[in-house]
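User: ok so my PI wants both of these folded by tonight, can you help

Assistant: No problem, let's get them done. Here's the first:
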Amino acid sequence: MKTLHPNDFGYWLFTQGSNLYLLNNELPCGMAKTLGMEGLQAMQIGEWKNHPLWLVAEQESDEREYVSLRGLLSLPEDEFHVLSRGVEINHFLKTHKFCGKCGHKTQQTQEELAVQCTHCGYRTYPVICPSIIVAVRRGHEILLANHKRHYHPNGGMYTTLAGFVEVGETFEQAVRREVFEETGILIKNIRYFGSQPWAFPNSQMVGFLADYERGEITLQESEIHDAQWFSYDQPLPELPPTGTIAHKLIHTTLELCRAEDNQKEI
């Protein structure tokens, strides 16, 4: 980051964890001196509406009112991603002020996004945790789970299965393992669908579609409250919000269910 000059101009991203500051439902825009930001630390992380987007170093004492990044999922994908980038960079800089090798202070490098130890020279880059997320189809049905964190006495949200990739594991192995661990179901025909940065705080969601092979639902009770097969042509439970890769996976799978059911009628 650099010290802001009075005439530095653009949109300004203030973050606190996975929350950010909006002024009249928009990122603040203007010159640093006009917005009273002279002397603060900031770095340009991209563009917003064809102007520079600056990430401002998180302020320890800040009376601004912040909103959750999750509440902005309805934004265009490119805009949501650049905000996620800012949140993740902020998380990285906050959690890597000291060297993980020798414990001395680090400083941000000038030539690339990294921090380097001022004592031993060890360099660290932003940490991204790969996670898989998968929609499983069985004919005209989709497998959806109500995770314990989403449970509500009136039902709560049902979504696809997901989990972190373990050391030495391929994405496909992680997909098979997570589905089996959480539901006891074996799957086949695993294929890549898409990905989504997920800044809560630093995940990369890698999405897959898969087909049911065999097995009966057996819940991993420490993680899952309920899991069921839902037919595409019957009422569905509460689903993840628009803008999430889970939402895209579910609706793509429902279309596949519909297509297979229609094919059987021909």
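One down. Here's the second:
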Amino acid sequence: MDILQKALAREHLSAQELSKLYEYDIFTLADAAQQIRTGLYGKKVFFNNNRHINPSNICADVCKFCAFSASRKNPNPYSMGIDEVLSLAHKAYENGAKELHIVSSHNPNYTYEWYFELFRAIKKALPQVHLKALTAAEVDYLDRISNKGYKRVLEDMLASGVDSMPGGGAEIFDEKVRRYICKGKVSSQRWLEIHQHWHSLGKMSNATMLFGHIEEREHRIDHMLRLRAAQSETDKVANKQGGFNAFIPLLYQRQNNFLKVTSFPSGQEILKTISIARILLDNIPHIKAYWATLGLNLAIVAQDFGADDMDGTIQLESIQSAAGAKSKSGLSKHELVCQIKDAGFVAIERDSLYNELAEC
């Protein structure tokens, strides 16, 4: 039995062994991934109507890959107040957003309580909108400035109206790579612990992986295996409700940051990574080809390589576009639907937890 067959049979293999999956022909991997994807969702491609809001770019941490945080490469610091965020939230809702995705920097000028006042204000004003907020890195930062412990942070999030967590801050779990690209940020183990506790509270989250920088193929596989193991632990809990909704491979954006990378992954390497994710992450329901980092065309192509989701309209995107992605202004629902249908798929508008709302 070869490596691909063993992977599909979920035999216990090391990250080093599984990294040999990259040596397969791209269409062999695509065929295996698509059989899984089609068995689950047929020709459906999911998206949602969402709005990203990033309250500040002033950050206490320094990640070499980040072009969003204020630095000498981005000398335009800003901090929003609660009223300003609320105003943007109202406008987003008026424009059709059903989800607010709120991720910020680790701003030392915001107090611990500021975040929960913000969330309570949003839920009071817009109770029907799904609030997705705070990465595990932000949770860890709030723990650091408050000494309350990450469990208390998560419980305060729950009490203030946060509905689910995004998957940011995972980057690459390999500790050596992590020390180089984001030293001082939440550790890989703590990132996983934070999400698992959130899941134990009956809530869902996403998981990301930043790839295409200094990591090796084996590091990507190791990252996926750790996520699969964490999801398996959640699956063991009786009456499980929480868990990872989706895995999102985020392609590193090369501009305006301090990570000196000169070799970037080809389109084939990117698509192989998505196919391998679908093959290995059999217990995470969805694989998202995030158009804001991949570009719209490649994200559409990725739907034939194991992905089944493209994220959403976004309305305004600040983090990836700061590093060169062509995602600043988001997409209209009409444009997103047309692109999906023109590629021969069925466009399904979903909510934040992947309940199907409408075929478009």
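The chain has one domain: 3-359. The domain at 3-359 is CATH 3.20.20.70 (TIM Barrel). Good luck tonight!
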